[in-house]
């Protein structure tokens, strides 16, 4: 799974709009849309912020793992 699918799925599952997530990342909606569609590479700082927001590991966010969290908390 490519990270763009995961980023979009997490947003939809959280019932958030692209604009709401763009506001979280302090960017324009169009910039966020391009991250979500894979037209622009998601910067590391944004990936970290999204992983924290959705309470998932970076590996999960980036599609490298199917485990939402690395460790049980």
Task: Please describe the structure with a list of short key phrases separated by commas or semicolons.
73 residues; mainly alpha; 0% strand
3D structure, described in words:
The protein is mainly α and 73 residues long. The chain has helices at residues 3-13, 18-25, 29-37, 44-54, 58-61. Helix 2 packs across helix 3 (29-37). The radius of gyration is 11 Å and the shape is globular.
- The count of helical stretches stands at 5
Mind describing the biggest β-sheet? none
Q: Label the structural class.
A: mainly alpha
What gyration radius follows from the Cα positions, in whole Å? 11 Å
Separation, N- and C-terminal Cα atoms: 25 Å
Unreliable stretches (pLDDT < 50, length at least 5) are none
Q: In percent, how helical is the residue content?
A: 55-70%
How much is the average pLDDT?
A: 92
- The succession of helices and strands, N to C, reads HHHHH
Shape: globular
Strand content: under 5%
Brief rundown of the structure:
The chain is built from 5 helices and no strands. By secondary structure, the protein is mainly alpha-helical. The relative contact order is 0.18.
Topology of helices and strands:
Elements: H1 3-13, H2 18-25, H3 29-37, H4 44-54, H5 58-61
Helix pairs in contact: 2-3
